[in-house]
């Protein structure tokens, strides 16, 4: 496993990290014992950065992950979770107030069985009043950082423009990292347009969802996926072509997503230990850049099609 530093945080993270959303049954039902083994497999093979959220599975992902973490030495992993986006009974809720933010951090620590969180993120800020994120959410997290309860503070969003807006409106050093998803993939590399800006601000970059939430997979997208039909069809054709070449699109997608040295780490999620190991093995092999070019040609005009988070 190769490692790099996440911005100026001092956190040395693997190029491929473990996203724990699958532990909450976000994509399909999971078996808890198998999900816990997936966490162990990740740690054993150097994926020591773990990202989760109380929103994933409406606290289930944090709860399952917490059971796994009780079996691990605290120094063996770096832990990231989030505030702002929640849910219960299948209903999404959002609350970016300072009071709920502080409360959420302590709730997450209890579920995760830790007394310190390495990185705390404001989750999906496109659903928030960005001024509230600047005036309430982030100051509450900075306060917890100053108290030593969290190590570093970040923000996440699908919309890169929102990430930039918030960074521009807070004191330097408030936001130490950003997490953006689906924008450094085979079908969309918009994140590249913002790397100079993030580097100038000393902000580390976390790339997430190398499979574009199922677009770049043989299984295809879940029903709730927000991509337009034309993009879904283009990605399906690309997947079929890769398969005809004996090169699963999942392999090409994850290799591509970890190929840019300016990106600190890429998150992928699986509750299956075999899939965790398979993806680690994928990134150890050289990428077929000719196939990358062919896939981008197949997807063609559908690249960088705008679609909204749900």
UniProtKB/TrEMBL annotation:
Residues 16-298 form the NADP-dependent oxidoreductase domain. GO terms for molecular function: L-galactose dehydrogenase activity. InterPro entries: AKR, LGALDH-like, NAD(P)_OxRdtase_dom_sf, NADP_OxRdtase_dom. Pfam families: Aldo_ket_red. GO terms for cellular component: cytosol. It comes from the Bacteria. SUPFAM superfamilies: NAD(P)-linked oxidoreductase (SSF51430). This is Oxidoreductase, aldo/keto reductase family protein. It comes from Paraprevotella clara YIT 11840.
